[in-house]
Amino acid sequence: MKRFTLASAAIAAALTASAQWNTSNVPVQIGTAVGTNDPIAALTNDGKMYVLWRSSARVDNAICYSFPHLQLLDKDGKVLFGEKGLDIATHKSPSWNSAYSLAVTSDGCAIVSNADSRAEEAEDLEMYNAFTPVWYKIDQNQDYVWGLDGLALTDRINSPFTDTFVVGDDVWIQDHSATSGEVNYFNRVSADGTLGFTEPLKIFGQVIQSVGSDFLTIGSGSDGVEVQRYTRDGKAVWAEPAVVTSTIFGGHDLHPYKILSDGKGGVYITYVRNVGDFGHTIATQHVTADGDPTFGLDAMDALSDENKDIDYPKMAVDTKSNTALVAFAQSLGNGTYSMNVQKFNEEGDRLFGDDAKQIEIKYDDAAGWAFNVYGAQPVGDGEWLICYSDVIQWGKEKLYVARIDKDANVLWKQQIAEDGEVSDVNFLKGDDCSYVVYKGNNEDDYSILRGARIYDDGTFEKDNTTALPYSIDFTVGKPADWAYLDKSTPASDYGHWAYGEASVKTTEGKKYISCVFTGINFDDTPWNDYYISPEFKLDATKSYKIKSQSLCDGESYKLTLERGTSLTDDATFTKFADCQMQKNTLDQSKEDETMLKVDESGVYRIAFHVTSTAKSPTDNVYLFNFSIEEDKTSGIDNVNDNLADITSATIRSIDGKLVQTVKGGKFNSATLAPGMYIVTVKDAQGRTQSMKISK
After folding, report:
1. Using one digit for the tens of pLDDT, what is the confidence trace for 624-683?
2. Selecting from 3.30.390.30, 3.40.50.1010, 3.40.1350.10, 2.60.120.260, what CATH number does the domain 470-630 have?
3. 402 bridge partner residues
4. CA distance linking residue 31 with residue 26, whole number of Å
5. What is the Cα–Cα distance from 511 to 508, expressed in whole angstroms?
6. Residue 164 pLDDT > 70, yes or no?
7. From CA 452, how far away is CA 146, in angstroms rounded?
8. How far is the C-alpha of 360 from the C-alpha of 373, rounded, in Å?
9. Paired residues of 547 in beta bridges
């Protein structure tokens, strides 16, 4: 079931009419909606992204209400729900002191929760006294799986705070009543929108998946933070909740605890606790799937000195290394502020020391503008991404993403936007990149949705080059990353490189071998065709060794190796070698070898270029393999300047392994096995000279 509005008629045309993700540090505007507030973003399993936001409007010149909207972006950042997004509902939602949520199901649908005034009279609306909780399930085709009016709890009229949790294939819904003494609501919803239990379950706290369909709840208790494990039937696994800390969150927040899975059914918990009357510090605990707190009987503070006031943390968990990272800002006094990180192992050790580690510091900010931390994510190999901002003045921030290594050294830092207004920042991790989605302002000072993608190496455009060394055996399967270019005049429908099984005469007799070959040109056109490789990043200071195996069973063709940059423009290609094709009979033990050196460093493709003198030759050219690798002796040249007073010499094998180190300039060559070596000598002034020798 779809919701059709006047704007929805243009949706189909808009599906391909949107800007893609950024290719520089300048973020893109997501759609064309203005007046956007409180954005929430979430990724699907197939790499798309839902973005939920609210807009405000006056209705009938009455008080201001809010309305929810939803957008879906594909992997390239194109909008799929029209330029202005999907208007989820037209029910008026009181805009003060309410919370809504976005979750993504295992089948890629969006679950949106909200509180609206559908069941209330006008006089109740004037008092902001109408909060009916409702959940919508919307698929990627904009179908309302649970109906246009969603799943509404119409008997609960004062529940402004709604939440949604996805546990495996299950969806759990929760609301928090604003009426004193009224019990909060918790229930499971089936895929078709049916409630799992006639009466709501008496389950409280934040929820995270444990083992299978079980889940953990985390909440504040009379003795500290409590954790309980439940089955999908709502049954408690433990007789009593596990008390895992002696302190609780010191403040007011719908989500007081930062919780992340440890990948084994347990949970890491980070929160802010009170210190004295006005101070705060950040505490962290890890709890196993069995309810055991591994940091000990109490949480560990991020700093050993609890009197150093810190607040507003973000947490990330690396499930491979079983470590948790906590990022936070700190005032050091006298206008000095730092961006800090602390890392914990599963035992609760402060791996970055008692005072944590600083990744950035700024001085002399007398106005008191500090850092804001917006998120952290693991990258792998013990490295992390941190999203934060340097606050310059009121409503003006510099937004950054930085990558740090396992020792908290900054590997790179990129500013995502020009200095400006930044709020409601979402920081999400994709497969090889991260996303920043936030509320910004346009040139007319209207709020809009902005977003940016940054790859894990700190670039904004993906490096699609193929790593070296590279080799491909055309005899084992059709290559997916090679392409042919037919530049015959006129172009031929048949006369171009093809892949298939051919009858080839070899030194071991005739064989049927899968390969790339020319075939027969029925269009009576001379051959002028390219078979083009994927892209390689080549360095002008290095040389590259190329090997190939080819055969011609006649005399009609010439085959050359050329370097270029395009799949469609042959003018970019320049010949650098003639292919020494084997004639008539293939010796599978032999390969042609040549060297390539480019004039400028850059991204190149290598092409087999076949030409013929005859219009329709009956013989053929066959390609069997190709490889390219850096020549290990690249950059090793004899230096013209003579060195004086040689103090030492090192001899290494061609693959870089140390063979000998001697004082002075003499070494014993008799001990060297036959082969190629690199000799580096050093003089008294510290100058070095390298040369290649053979024995």
Report:
1. 999 999 987 654 444 445 566 778 888 877 666 778 887 776 666 667 777 777 787 777
2. 2.60.120.260
3. 386, 413
4. 16
5. 8
6. yes
7. 32
8. 12
9. 593, 627
Residue 359 CA to residue 341 CA, distance in Å, equals: 7
Number of H helices, E strands in the chain: 2, 49
Report residue 126: phi and psi, to 5°: -60, -25
Residue found under tokens 């040369």: 691
Residue 179's closest CA among 125, 232, 127, 131? 131
The rounded distance, in Å, linking the Cα atoms of 465 and 397 is: 35
Q: Which of 10-14, 197-201, 212-216, 497-501 has the weakest average pLDDT?
A: 10-14
Residue 396 CB partners (closer than 8 Å, separation 6+): 419, 420, 421
**Paired tokens of 686:** 């510290």
Q: Where are the domains of the chain?
A: 1-202, 470-630, 646-694
**CB of 214 closer than 8 Å to CB of 230:** yes
Gap between the Cα atoms of 226 and 219, Å rounded: 5
**H or E element in which residue 124 lies:** helix 122-126
Left if phi > 0, otherwise alpha if psi is -120 to 50, otherwise beta: which for 633? alpha
- Residue 305's pLDDT is what? 96
- pLDDT-derived band of residue 495, with 50, 70 and 90 as boundaries? low
The angle formed by the CA atoms of residues 324, 303 and 263, to the nearest 5 degrees, is: 10
Three-state DSSP at 462 gives: coil
Name residue, tokens 């893609």: 20
Residue 12 has pLDDT above 60, yes or no: no
